[in-house]
Amino acid sequence: MTEREPIGVVGAGWVGLVTATCFAELGHRVVVREILPEKVQSLRRGELPIHEPGLPELIERNGERLTFTTEMVELLDGPRLLFICVQTPPTYSGDADLSAVQRAVEEIGEPNGKALVMKSTVPVGTGRTIMRDAPGLAYVSCPEFLREGTAVRDFLEPDRVVVGSQPEHGWAADAVEAVYEPLGAPIVRTDVSSAEMIKLASNAYLATKISFINEIANVCDEVGADVTEVARGMGLDPRIGSRFLNAGLGFGGSCFPKDTQALKILAGNSGYHFQLLSAVIEVNELQKRRVMAKLRKHLDSLVGKRVALLGLAFKPDTDDMREASSLVLAARLEGEGASVVAFDPIAEARARELLPSVEMAPSALEATDGADAVILVTEWPQFVELDWAEVARRMNTPLLVDGRNFLDPEAVRSAGITYEAIGRPSLGDPGSRVAPGDARARDSATREMKEEAER
Ligand code: UDX
Fold first, then answer.
1. Is residue 128 part of a domain?
2. Most exposed: 141, 198, 356, 364, by fewest CB within 10 Å?
3. Looking at the 3D structure of the chain, how many domains does it have?
4. What spacing in Å lies between the alpha carbon of 32 and ligand 1's midpoint?
5. Are residues 156 and 69 in the same domain?
6. Mind listing the pLDDT tens digit for each residue in 279-303?
7. Is 220 a catalytic residue?
8. Whose CA is nearest to atom 22 of ligand 1?
9. Which pLDDT belongs to residue 426?
10. Quick check: helix, strand or coil at residue 360?
11. H or E element that contains 102
C-alpha cells in the first residue's frame, strides 16, 4: 500500500474513534488527541469506551497505525489535516455549546500549512467565525453522517461526502477529498456555510419524516387504519422511500433531538420562525407519552403496578442513552405511582446512573416477573425470540405495548397476552374499560389518549 497522508484527530468520542479507526483502515497513520488521560490509557490498553459493532476488530487490525495521546503538540508535529471530532451538546437555550470546539481551535493556534477539518455538527456560521479569528489556518467543513450501531459501514460506504471550503483553502479541500476518494462515494464540493447547513437540514428532514409517520400512526389509531400497511404503501413511491417510516415512540439519540433544536434556534436567532420544525419537535415529545394512555385503557390506575421496560437504549446496537424514550417513560410511570423494572442487553450500566430508581433485571424474561404491563421500548432483535407463553405465565396481568411495532402480534396474542401497538388499532384488544361497539366508552378512551398526549 502506498503511503497515505497522515491525519490528526481531535477527540476520541464516538465520532472521533470511528473516524480515526476507519482512516487507519484506509492506510493512513492517525494520531488521536484526547483530553481525558484515563480514556487515553484505556484506549492504549485496547479497551473501548463505547459499544459500536465492528469497531474493536478494526482497531485491533489497525493498531499499528493508530496513536492515542493527551498532547496536542504530538498532533501539531505531524499531519496537515486536523479533524475536529469534539462534542457540541445543546445548552439550556437550545444553542450548540461550542466550548470544546473553541478550546481545540485555541490549542491548535495557527501553525503554518495546517487545515482544520470540522466533523462536529456546528451551527451555520461557525466556520466563518473560526476563519475570521484564526486566519492563518485553512478551514474545511466535512460533516459527519454516521449512525450509531452501523457507523463503521456508514463510514466505509457513505452515500456522499460533503467538503465545504472557501476558494483560498482549496488545497485543504483537495487533500480531504483525496482522503475519501478510495470510498468511491459522490463528493459534494461546496462552500463552508452550505456544508454546515447540509448536515443540519439532512437530520431535520429525517426527523420530520419520523414525526410525520408518527402523526399518521396517531390518526390511524383514531380511524382504524394500520400504519405499517400505510408506510409500506407510501414507501414504494420512490419520491417518498421506505426508510425512516417506522412509527413508534419517536426519535432519540445524540443527533436528531439536538440538531432539530439547534436548527430551530439558529433560524430563530436570525429572525426566522421555523414553524414546521417546532411541530416536529413537539410531536416527538408527545409521542413518548402516548403509551401511557394505551396502558390506562387496560389498567384502571398505575398506582402500585409493576411495569417492565424491554430495552432502554435510544435504539438497538448501541448503549447510548441520550434522549432515550425510556427516560421519559420511566419518569412518567413512576410519576403515576408505578414501579419500573427494565432489561437492556448492553445499556444497563449507562442506564443505572440515569435511572437510579429503576430495578434492572438480569434478563428480559425475569423483567416480566410479576409485571402488570410490558412495554417494548427498544427493538433489540433478541426480543422477537422471547417465549411469550412463558412471559404470560410470569406476568401478573398479560398486557404488552409494542412501542416500536416490532413484534409479531400473533405470536404475542396466541400466548394470551393483550397486544397494543402504535397506529395499529385493529390488533389491539379494546380493553376491559372499552367494550367493542360501545361508542361512549370508545370516545372516552380517545379523549383520555388526547389528554395524555397533551399532558
Ligand atoms: C442519526 C442520523 O441518521 C445520522 O446520519 C447522524 O449522523 C446522527 O443522527 P443515529 O442518531 O445514530 O443517527 O440514529 P438513527 O438510526 O438515525 O435513528 C435516530 C432515531 O430515530 C432513533 O431513536 C430511532 O429509533 C428513530 N427512528 C428512526 C424512528 O423512530 N423511526 C424510523 O423510521 C427511523
1. yes
2. 356
3. 3
4. 27
5. yes
6. 999 999 999 989 999 999 999 899 9
7. no
8. 251
9. 79
10. strand
11. helix 99-108
Give 221's DSSP letter.
Answer: H
Task: Give the pLDDT confidence of 395-440 residue by residue, as tens digits.
Answer: 999 999 999 999 999 999 999 999 999 999 877 766 544 333 333 4
Within a domain: 322? yes
Q: How far apart are CA 393 and CA 391, in angstroms?
A: 5
Catalytic residue (choose from 22, 142, 220, 255)? 255
Q: What is d(CA 85, CA 119) in angstroms, rounded to the nearest whole number?
A: 5
| Residue 404 CB less than 6 A away from ligand 1 | no
Q: For all residues of the chain together, what is the average pLDDT?
A: 93
Radius of gyration of the chain (CA): 24
Confirm whether 195 is domain-assigned.
no
Using the predicted structure, report yes or no on whether residue 213 has a pLDDT greater than 80: yes
Q: Quick check: helix, strand or coil at residue 405?
A: coil
What pLDDT was estimated at residue 75? 87
Residues for the chain: how many in total? 455
DSSP H or E segment with residue 97: none
- State the first-to-last Cα distance of the chain, in angstroms, to the nearest integer: 60
CB of 343 closer than 8 Å to CB of 310: yes
Q: Are residues 365 and 245 part of one domain?
A: no
**Boundaries of domain holding 275:** 200-285
Q: Are 419 and 394 in contact (CB under 8 A)?
A: no
CA 315 to CA 255: how far, in whole Å? 12
